Amino acid sequence: MVRNLIAILAAAPVAAMVFPVASGHASAVSLLSPPPVAMHSAPSAPRADLRLYAHTAHTVWSGTGDAWDAIDLCLASSTGRYRLRIASLSGGALMGPGKLRYTLSLTDGAGVSHDVTLQDQVLVAIEGQAPADATCDRGPNATLRLRAPQDELLKGQAGRYLDRLRLAIDPL
Q1: How far apart are the first and last CA of the chain?
Q2: Interval 44-89: pLDDT, tens
Q3: How is the beta sheet containing 103-107 ordered, strand by strand?
Q4: Which of 64, 67, 95, 147 is the most buried (most CB within 10 A)?
Q5: Eight-class DSSP state of 28
Q6: Distance in angstroms (rounded) separating the CA atoms of residues 82 and 69
Q7: How much is the pLDDT for 119?
């Protein structure tokens, strides 16, 4: 029996810190005084944000049908486009008493579904869209779903199977 299909582990999202401080501390002077006025300002670099929310739903496989798991997330990019990199820490399979293949499906902020089969792939990249004014302060705007097909589950031994995924986002 498959109980927990997936545990998702987020990597530090790219460009998550808007104002990094090199020493780890800001001086009192910089906090109290206004920033210096520049004669001309350079354009800001594109940035992207990734946030994970709670699992929305999952199945406990009872011997028939597919098993699936889903998690809500927020994907935002100042350009309106992004590349989501998903790295499987188990070599692209659900690991347990055996090895089971699965597929991932991402529904992005524009409502477009991107399907990927992770058969022995360690890294996949999905290009998606989000409104350029989207921020992750408003909650989730995308869903990542995992599906293990019934025919694959019937090949496996009873037990707990999981894969840890590392997610990273880049603006395009």
Answers
A1: 41
A2: 788 889 999 877 677 778 888 999 899 999 999 999 899 999 998 8
A3: 48-58, 67-77, 142-148, 103-107, 113-117
A4: 67
A5: H
A6: 23
A7: 67
CB neighbours of residue 104 within 10 Å? 21
Whether the full predicted model's pTM is greater than 0.85, yes or no, is no
Question: What is the per-residue burial (b if ≥16 Cβ within 10 Å, else e) of 6-37?
Answer: bebeeeebbbbeeeeeeeeeeeeeeeeeeeee
CA atoms within 13 A on the CB side of 57: 6
**Contact (CB, 8 A) for 8 and 166:** no
CA 104 to chain centre: 11
What Å distances lie between residue 76 and 65, 87, 107, CA to CA? 34, 19, 13
Torsion-angle region of 42 (φ positive above 0: left; ψ -120 to 50: alpha; else: beta):
beta
Measured CA angle at 24 (ends 19, 27), to 5 deg: 85
Three-state secondary-structure class, residue 9:
strand
Query: Regarding predicted confidence, which is higher, 132 or 103?
Result: 103
pLDDT of 6 above 80: no
One-letter amino acid identity for 27? S
